[in-house]
Amino acid sequence: MEFGIVELSRLQFAATALFHFLFVPLTLGLSIIVAIMETVYVMTDRPIWRQMTKFWGSLFGINFALGVATGITMEFQFGMNWAYYSHYVGDIFGAPLALEGMMAFFMEATFVGLWFFGWQKLSARAHLIVAWLVAIGTNFSALWILIANGWMQYPVGAEFNPMTMRMELTSFAEVIFNPVAQAKFVHTVSAGYVVAAVFVLGVSAWYLLKGRHIELARRSIAVASAFGLAAALSVVVLGDESGYDTGQNQKMKMAAIEAMWRTEPAPASFTLFGFPDREARETHYAIHIPYVMGLIGTRSLDKAIPGFDELEKESERRIRDGITAYDLLMTIQETKQTGVDPAVLADFRSRSADLGYALLLKRYVDDPRQASEAQILQAANDTIPTVWPVFWAFRIMVGLGMGFIATMAFFFWRASFRQMDFPRWSLWLAVFMIPAPWIAAEMGWIVAEFGRQPWTVDGVLPTALSVSQLGITEVALTLAGFCIFYSVLFIIEIKLMLKYIRKGPQDDIAATDDWFADHRDHLSAGQFSREGTK
């Protein structure tokens, strides 16, 4: 592959997005866990729950601040490296991003300040409301971002205007209720809850191994395991919904996930393991599980799932139809000053859905109408994404997800039915598992974004046309700068997190100790009274 401006721009976006996504899932999950802990504190008035709330809240605050710093550049990058994309679809894509800033980010930023500085200023119930508003705002922010991303995956509620040469919004309701966007949202936030649960579980397990902050750690494990088990199970259920939507609306991505070179007759099997070979169009040493893919992709046992052979032919047909649409578009542009023939305009509108496929030819020829037969076939072949990253990322994600369910179920069982007696091996397992949900989350990002190539907006705008007119040196320098800056932020995050974890909870220790001493006195008095009665 030629390493040019498009590849460098893609690499820069991938690097900034992957860095940013190191912070987002923990923010989503910790906001809910902290709100749950504060709810228990307000209900019971036990200082230990206040201590837990403030300790995990401090770690949430560190992650939130650095997540904001890494997220700011994401939106600016569209105008910097993806200028034609911003011009072509900015009317649609910009709307949810603007709402995210006005309705969600300002909300969470405001209430985060109230939460941290309002402990002595607000009543317990008012402060609890603030905690839940922080959690709602954080998750609401993710909603708008994923609505924007979901539109890139499955563009609805918009159409191309041949007079302005841009995509224009026709139904904001369709954009908001886009089934792909909604499935992505619930799946992503559930994955974020798993990240936070594993983080809390691992840190708490470390405290138990060190014999420190025992009461905080035991209760935190109880909360994390219950919350994490529910979240991990929901990821599976919601992931199934996301898989079904992919099978219906992004058939090429589904074929890449499964390395399905040929159409799979019903009932389609799932490839558990194998080595995809694009040149040979074969998956070597494949191990199949019958029926599973049919249930995921079609929710039936009597529907075939199209493979690359069928989908490539469909892309070729759409490219040829798109060339006709492109020819009509050029006619409209040439005559728009003198008056466009209504019949030409109507004919274009009936074919405009395939215009994006003609634009794939721009990679090889300036005028798609002049494309050779070989270039048309090559453009059709380009609609097949690079298979092995999508294939393996999906399996790593699913495998880790099954591991999270087993781990959370074990700790929930020990916390609920074995008096919080945790074997040392399980505590070490929890500690070493801390990075695993981030790996799973990044793999999910790769499946979603890499599987969409060669499109920036699926079926509408090819990635090769979306970039800004910049030099390779400019993009390479900004890429290096972003990587250095983000690496510094990541190091700061790790150091701050480790510092405060080693330091442990500092607030309300005296009050917590007094409460437990008084509680033990009551227990001892009760036990003595029962023994005297005997």
Automatic annotation (TrEMBL):
Enzyme Commission number: 1.10.3.-
Where is the chain membrane-spanning?
17-43, 55-72, 92-117, 129-152, 190-209, 221-239, 392-413, 425-447, 467-492
Enzyme class per UniProt = oxidoreductase
Keywords in alphabetical order: Cell inner membrane, Cell membrane, Electron transport, Heme, Iron, Membrane, Metal-binding, Oxidoreductase, Transmembrane, Transmembrane helix, Transport
Domain of life of the native organism: Bacteria
Q: Where in the cell is it found?
A: Cell inner membrane
Its record classes its membrane topology as:
Multi-pass membrane protein
| GO MF terms, alphabetically ordered | oxidoreductase activity
Indicate whether Cell wall biogenesis/degradation appears among the record's keywords.
Answer: no
User: What does the similarity note say?
Assistant: Belongs to the cytochrome ubiquinol oxidase subunit 1 family.
- What is the protein name for this chain? Cytochrome ubiquinol oxidase subunit I
Organism field: Paracoccus cavernae
